[in-house]
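For the sake of clarity, the format in which proteins appear in this thesis is described at this point. The record quoted next illustrates the convention:

___
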Amino acid sequence: MSTQQLPVVVIGAGPTGLAAAARLVERGIEPLVLEAGPAAASAVREWSHVRLFSTWGEVVDPAAEKLLAPTGWMRPDPAAYPSGGDWADLYLQPLADVLGNRVRVGATVTGVSRAGRDRIVDADREQQPFVVHITYADGREERAFARAVIDASGTWATPSPAGGSGLPALGEKAAADRITYRVPDLKDPVVRARYAGRRTAVIGSGASAFTALALLAGLAKSEGGAGTKGVWILRRGISGSTFGGGEADQLPARGALGLAAKAAVDDGHADAVTGFRTEAVERDADGRLVLAGEDGRRLDPVDEVIVLTGFRPDLSFLGELRLGLDERLQAPVELAPLIDPNQHSCGTVYPHGHRELSHPEQGVYLVGMKSYGRAPTFLAMTGYEQVRSVAAAIAGDIDGADRVELTLPETGVCGGAGLFDAPDAAEADGSGCCAPTPQLVQLGAPAAVGAVAEEAPAGGCCGS
């Protein structure tokens, strides 16, 4: 069998992975989708309680919709905002069902290489198929051969720590019983009881942190929630862009989410601590947690900590491949300058495709949230455009692969994390770079509270 007759292995059955499979099928190329979780969209299901800040019209891939149409599937109201659970149940699972045995669940990819060639060997390298090692939930091991590999495994399983240096804070692991790296589901009575009437630190400055602050404020105002208090910990100061673009955001629910976080602070349901980088997590005599900063500050004790400082890619199973990754973001080198939060906001990211996603190892593509490495705020529509281009390139349609078929909405915020290390300067710039200081508005739809970036709730626009 020639390499061209082999399937394309897609790692991950999330939104981008399933869209990649749909695009490959559209091109007459067989995909093999390997999902580590017990069902398609397993990561999305873990934040099923969180509502997206994009509408149904923006989170359904056109090629996927074509696959679904013959089954009688109808896209939900394009103007409505789905929750993660809605997205999984009403779109992603039906799409996986249509793809049938092309999708394998409980299949963890443990390694990818070239058949008979480790990372060192040059000879005939590009003529060899890829070999993918798989371990199934029942312990079975298997290898599959592929003409190309699309890694859409995301970053959900590898959240960034509380420590300000990128490493876990001292004592962070020992305090795991009081720390979560997810937005809590306060509709769950057990989870609700964990936070009700308690003091909770929220570390992070992005969409997920906004969500947590808004939810805690809602809990404080609800029956049985009296005494609930948030402590919002930011590694930089507060400026006009801290709460996002507000009414200037072209995704209205995303702008409203930042304003909900602002309201939590303005109404006294959360106190903001700025310029604080966590160095240690300690316990006081009562077992409560005390956060110590790199500058010597020690905060008042809290009962719980919610760490929402973004995510990072797991590259461990790609070690035998020759990847070209930016040394800072761990994103493809051609993509990194477009998404670097040190330089600009996510509002200035341009649509991109196979050229920006390529590596020295031809035929390998990191797509979706994983393609952004450590950069924050990835939109589903970005992933759909990525895999449209990648599938065209794999099929040999370079003109189609190079064509741009997407215009991304802007955040209404310019300027990135350049003030990250200068909180005083950030506070002085009250108006932000190009957005007016957000004005508090009444949230018109429940969808605006608890909305996140589609692929995985990561940090905010410009880091944490």
User: Anything to note?
Assistant: The chain is about 25% helix and 15% strand. The chain has a mean pLDDT of 85.
